[in-house]
Queue: 2 jobs
Job 1
Amino acid sequence: MIRIGIVGIGFMGMIHYLAAQKLKDARVTAISSRDPKKLAGDWRGIHGNFGPPGEKMDLGKVKRYKSLDALLKDPDIDLVDICNPTHVHPKTAIAALQAGKHVLVEKAIALEAKDADAMLAAAKKAGKLLMVAHVLPFVPEYAFATEAVRSGEYGKLLAATFQRVISKPDWSAEIADASKTGGPAVDLHIHDTHFIGLICGVPKQVFSTGVVDKGTVMHLTTQYLYGANGPSVSCTSGALTMKGREFIHGFEMYFEKGTLIFSGITPLKVLTPDGKVTEPKFKGGSDPVTAFIAEIQTAVDAVANHKEPALLSGKLARDALVLCHNECKSVLTGKAVPT
């Protein structure tokens, strides 16, 4: 039985807690929060851009700590699940690793590459796992696309376009604070850079154009330059859409022998050379929490086996962060930036 301690009970901490209720061979044994109401189980003030709203929770069997230090001293925790704001991820993760705990930290791994590097070094020194929770590879449509690339079922990936656009986030003060999240070009777009890195690897260069507000890149369109033999890949991501369409994501992926189309509001479609169009069926339906169950279960299994899973790789998460920063630099300079 892997024992989990969740740090930070905001929207993402709540989603992780709900997902953990359906894990195999694992359970949440402790949480930490600075908010006494949340420690008492009153989560009614929590809400986000997907999933259920917060409610009153029965935390009778869960240890509750006001501070991180107190949670890290608990010997009945194997895995610390970090869901606090991004700007404190490095300090939190390094403290947990030094306390002898394995770590799962929500994306983004950090705001700066140097801090991500320090986290990776701390994990290596402690001999513990540092895993980063980028949920996108566990979303069924993206998992299908990943397997299509890896298996070669439709031949070589020739080109792909990705999209991830939201309205300005307003469900919490911290999520809208670029100093704590990195702004949309990090907090939002890192989903895309992580996934592109996963299926295509790190490009040689990036060239981006975008919209900048008070020094923060709010929206960008990027070409990922892999060279003559690489795929043609682009992505548009940002926080410019109006409330009538709060969130949209999706992709079109063009293989030698097939095309995958997913809009986020219509099912994934597979187009093949014979003219057929099929819609793969996935277990779990449309509940977004299902992907988080798979993600955290992967982390739990990794702790049990003491082996880092590729989909939660700290190095992959670090490279995704660097790509985001390089794209911002490209927006601001108007030039292609080597990676």
Job 2
Amino acid sequence: MMGAIAGDLIGSVYEAWPIKHKEFPLFSGDSTFTDDTVLTVASADALLTDGDYIRAYQKYFARHPGRGYGASFANWAVSRRTLAYGSFGNGAAMRVSPVAWAKGRLDLVLDEARRSAAVTHDHPEGLKGAMATAAAIFLARKGADKAAIRRYLSETFGYDLDRNLDLIRPDYSFDVSCQGSVPESIISFLESVDFEDAIRNAISLGGDADTMACIAGAIAEAFYGGVPDKIAAETRARLDAGLLDVVDRFCHHSEASEHPG
């Protein structure tokens, strides 16, 4: 989960000022967490407590206003609605990473990812984006290599993951749909050589930088065995105490579940 949050923070500066290269500062005085982090932590909170994603997302929205929420999500949260609104945006994919650490089998991860997405993003593409992201993280943390991850996601979800970032980058533009950003985020991980490189790849496409780096970072954390200490420290320093408390409790719970006894 820290990989997703780090990606969000690093990408936050470049969402409004897209870039098409990989040479940029990871952090600046303007680096801050967005709705991607808030709702990722909300997912973790739901998994730690009662599993009520609607309650969690609406509660965290109220606690952290003005963090870049999409208009449809904001209207849903403010009105306290309980019905989804048919979104195929990438919001369900960017908040799903805790699911991949909370469940011990792929089928359970897929079911829970669908459930977490469906409270808002119940369009088939919205569900698929969340499930594909969660599956990639789960397979990575269980030791699958990149070829196996690519093959599973392509065969199961129909994403074209054989494209090259150098060919995607020139014509790629801002796209908040799952179908237009999740595959590219996954490719950013697949072409990476380490955690930091995955983040740089995602941001260098010049699209929805914070969310794409959030997704790529979440997969990279699982595959590369964590977030580099310096990046993790910079990330933690920019979170408030309430968010950090949930992150730490969730990580402790996940580690305990992974290594019982």
